[in-house]
Amino acid sequence: MKALAIDVGGTKIYNTIVDENGNIVANVEKHSTPKTFDGIREILMNIIKSHENEADVVAIATAGSVNNENTAILGSTGNIAEGYPKMDFMSLSSKKVFVENDANAAAWAEHIIGVSKDCSDSVMLTLGTGVGGGIIVNNKLLKGKNGAAGEMHFKMYPDKRRKCTCGAYDCFEAYASGTGLRKTAVELTGNPDVTTYDVINEVNAVLKHPETSGGISKTDILRTASDDKYIQAFLKWQDDILTGCIGLANLFDTCMIVLSGSMAEFVDIDYIEKELNKEIVTTYTKVRKATAGNYAGMIGAALLAMNVGLKNERNC
Amino acid sequence: MKALAIDVGGTKIYNTIVDENGNIVANVEKHSTPKTFDGIREILMNIIKSHENEADVVAIATAGSVNNENTAILGSTGNIAEGYPKMDFMSLSSKKVFVENDANAAAWAEHIIGVSKDCSDSVMLTLGTGVGGGIIVNNKLLKGKNGAAGEMHFKMYPDKRRKCTCGAYDCFEAYASGTGLRKTAVELTGNPDVTTYDVINEVNAVLKHPETSGGISKTDILRTASDDKYIQAFLKWQDDILTGCIGLANLFDTCMIVLSGSMAEFVDIDYIEKELNKEIVTTYTKVRKATAGNYAGMIGAALLAMNVGLKNERNC
Q1: Cβ separation of B158 and A153 shorter than 8 Å?
Q2: What is the pLDDT of residue B214?
Q3: CATH number of the structural domain spanning residue A36
Q4: Residue B310 falls within a domain, yes or no?
Q5: pLDDT tens-digit series, residues B14-59
Q6: Do residues B158 and B188 both lie within one domain?
Q7: B300, B276: one domain
Q8: Shortest CB distance from B142 goes to which of A68, A137, A159?
Q9: Can you spell out the DSSP letters for B222-254?
Q10: Does residue B132 share a domain with residue B101?
Q11: Could you tell me if B19 and B166 lie in one domain?
């Protein structure tokens, strides 16, 4: 069995073919996401027309929350063309079409073929410009009553009033995202022009020229430069991620917290795991980086569409 | 089928008989919780010896996290006799013995016979001296990899450094509990002797003599007394509960948040529901007070022990 997998994001649309083992078995094609509903629909129809004969099902990973029937988007999606959430995905192919939120799909890919594949319970955080999330409870995606569960919009500092992309204030996303790191750096330096890259470049510079050396952690090295405001911002951002992970570990008693996305590579995972397990009241929780790759969303949507799951047992 | 239901708390142990419909069908007996392991074990053995012939199973709701096999406590329990978590519950009766965390059990009682009985997904918060929690996902208790899930220890103000009973700082419990209300009132008044009752008495006084009247909410009335530091503390406490509920609604896309416990009666539920639904990115979430009563822990443990559950369908 094979799936035509499509990932619809705010800036790019990708497509490829995925088999039942989660292998990508065709070229990955890339398109810019059109600014209009009709433009997006035309690209989706062209992709499906060209490739549906190579697959048994069509699996779409998309921005936005997806209903429990995996047929349609719930509510709005932020940075995609107006009207896109009303897309009638089911009409795009005569074959079965299956839709899931991109972060949920990526969490499923980690659960089946990635770093959390031996875990019945895991929470994946995608740290990029924003923060996405996907939660696995006892080998099933946590979807909630309508399918919108897994939104990482719990508040971090309810009295700070930092605006979040969701329209509310002070959500985890507003602190733990790349944008959050930039805002923290702007606050600490007083310079409104600081970028996320400025901070990351400084972090990399300090890590290349540590004042101390030998067997100490990245976080320990960075702490030797604690009078550097960029480094302070980075360490605060990392601790904000830690804080969110502690809450998630206490709520879910999950086997593993998986960090994915472009910003995850800068996080000192060992530090997060060590500090988290000092604080939680549940049981030992692993923290790991994602391993299912950049196309995890397509792979996960394909595996879900083909009903590839693990046996319903606690296994970690 | 009937269960001998026992509730082991930090100060009292209760027991009664519960039928498959969740009805209490015998007297509720009450004992002070002994300070020693042996004392608790003796009371449990006496209860079971006296009443096990009236029931088919023994159902124990207890302080502390309980494993996924429902046989034993995980880790420590805080305010009960040292060694209690190592109790061999299974040896107490020749009949089936079933153990569950008290807040989880109470959440199950609400799910089967209480306010959330038409909900596939609900989150119950028990607001008392501390904060307990029980989470239902798709008609099942959320237990996590080892059974400890549902701990409401996500951080509210990570930079405030208010000590929590769990040993960490700034958890939801440290703000949303009765103790949290007292601490907030102490902070705002500068008076270390303020009690929770002082604040509640002041709230009741203002609500009896409102400066405005007619069709306005309790919260609106209290806001007319906003230069009263006790009232400020109360409103801040209520907003801290709201903040936690927003995060839970976004994580779980749950049908209903159920507030139970002695402190829940003071919360303006309509205010929480209205404000929560303005902020969340998931779908409309109800907020209600619990209705299964003071013995919900025993009822829920009994229903779980007798395998009384709802059909596995989304139904709200």
Answers
A1: no
A2: 66
A3: 3.30.420.40
A4: no
A5: 999 999 999 999 999 999 999 999 999 999 999 999 999 999 999 9
A6: yes
A7: no
A8: A137
A9: HHTTTT-HHHHHHHHHHHHHHHHHHHHHHHH--
A10: no
A11: no
3-class state of residue A286 by DSSP = strand
The total of structural domains in chain A comes to 2
Q: What is the pLDDT of residues A237-270, one digit of tens each?
A: 999 999 999 999 999 999 999 999 999 999 999 9
What is the pLDDT confidence band of residue B312, given thresholds at 50, 70 and 90?
A: low
Q: Which residue in chain A is spatially nearest to B172 when comparing CA positions?
A: A247
Q: Is residue A273 part of a domain?
A: yes
Q: B139 and B44 in one domain?
A: no
Q: Could you tell me if B2 and B25 are in contact, meaning their C-beta atoms sit under 8 angstroms apart?
A: yes
Decide if B312 is inside a domain.
no
Interface of B with A in 162-191 (CB under 8 A): 166-168, 171
Chain A residues lying within 8 Å of B121, measured CB to CB: 144-145
Is the CB of residue B251 less than 8 Å from the CB of residue A171?
no
The CA distances from residue B308 to A78, A305, B140, B300, B305, in Å, are: 42, 33, 11, 9, 8
ipTM above 0.90, yes or no: yes
A267-315 pLDDT, tens digit each = 999 999 999 999 999 999 999 999 999 999 999 999 999 998 865 566 6
Q: Which of A75, A121, A167 sits opposite B145 (nearest CB)?
A: A121
Confidence at residue A315, expressed as pLDDT on a 0 to 100 scale: 62
Six-digit token string for B268 = 């303006």
Which residues of A fall within a CB distance of 8 Å from B147? 253
- Residue A183 covered by a domain: yes
CB contact under 8 A, A282 and B144: yes
Please report the pLDDT score of residue B211 as a whole number. Answer: 60
Contacting B residues, span 107-146, partner chain A, CB-CB under 8 Å:
119-121, 135, 137-138, 140, 142-146
- Answer yes or no: is pLDDT of A216 > 90: no
Q: How many Cβ atoms from other residues are within 10 Å of residue B179's Cβ?
A: 20
Residue B253 contacts A where some CB pair is shorter than 8 Å? yes
Test mutation, B140, B250, B257, B313, chain A, max A CBs within 10 A: B250
- CB–CB of A154 and B65 under 8 A? no
In contact, B261 and B128? CB cutoff 8 Å = yes
What is the overall mean pLDDT for chain B?
A: 94
Around A266, how many Cα atoms within 13 Å sit in the side-chain half-sphere?
A: 28
pTM: 0.95
B274 and B150 co-located in one domain? yes
DSSP E strand stretches across B105-215: 122-127, 131-137, 140-141
What is d(CA B128, CA B126) in angstroms, rounded to the nearest whole number? 6
**Which residues of chain B does A282 touch, with a Cβ-Cβ cutoff of 8 Å?**
65, 144, 146, 148-149, 151
Q: B8: domain range?
A: 2-108+295-305
On the question of pLDDT at B212 being above 60, the answer is no
Contacts of A250 in chain B (CB under 8 A): 151-154, 171
- For B231-250, what is each residue's pLDDT tens digit? 999 999 999 999 999 999 99
When pLDDT is averaged across residues A38-55 and rounded to a whole number, the result is 97
Strands B96-101 and B57-62 turn out to be parallel
Q: How confident is the model at residue B75 (pLDDT cuts 50, 70, 90)?
A: confident
